[in-house]
Amino acid sequence: MAAYLISDVTVKDAAAFETYRTRAAASIAHYGGRYLVRGGPIETLEGRWNPRTIIVVEFADLERARAWYRSPEYAEALAVRDRALSRNLVLVDGIGAS
Q: Which pTM was predicted?
């Protein structure tokens, strides 16, 4: 069953963010992930949550998403993360076919 990473990102340093984004994208592809949402306009319909940038990545399952997050490939992106951005990141399990 698919699993989804949902990230609410605030860019702190544009140059570092570009490095992070390039490295993260390569590592996501390496682990079979695919972007479903990568920025774009956001319209708040309810509540007080006002994110600037939302990113959603789909992986085949929770295990594959966790393997990516702990991977040496993604560690290269994490090396610049704190300079590049601040974020909230969650991993959620999808639903199976009914």
A: 0.92
